Amino acid sequence: MTVQRSDSWTDFFLGEAQTAHRHSLLDSKSKVALHYCISDIDQIATMSCPSSEIPKHLWQKLQQQHARSSFASRKSYG
Fold it and tell me: Do strands 2-6 and 9-13 pair parallel, antiparallel, or not at all (unpaired)?
């Protein structure tokens, strides 16, 4: 995980998220952003929240992304 702080925002780059093909979840109230790659979502799903600076609801939303991603891939394979 890489953390960058700028313009009062804190950005957390998880896995290979510093590549051009990433997804992001933002919380404008706490000014925190989580950046991740779909290819890393299975690994991220097994992690505990890596920082107390990440709002609990934002981390939970990322975990839900994994559930949706897993459901979609199961559905597409039959």
Answer: antiparallel
